Amino acid sequence: MAQSVNKKMLIGQLLSIDPNLAVILMRSGMHCIGCPSSQMESLEEAAMVHGIDADVLVEQINDYLAQ
User: Could you say which of 3.30.1380.10, 3.40.605.10, 1.10.530.10, 1.10.3910.10 is the CATH number of the domain covering 11-66?
Assistant: First the structure.
């Protein structure tokens, strides 16, 4: 069974699950994921800063991981 993510997870945790998640994050507008400080930010916090719906992003990531 594929791993599931949630919006409380840190960006660093997400990228350790699958580095290819960076593409989804960048496509949504999070171009700062390479910044060291972003690694300790939750997906929810990062989404809020970028004006992105965290729930939609979590759904996209989990859909990708389920494939």
Answer: 1.10.3910.10
pTM listed for this prediction: 0.86
DSSP 1-67: ------TTSBHHHHHHH-TTHHHHHHHTT-TTTTSGGGGGSBHHHHHHHHT--HHHHHHHHHHHHH-
Neighbours of 58 (CB within 10 A): 20
Predicted confidence at residue 8, as pLDDT, reads: 96
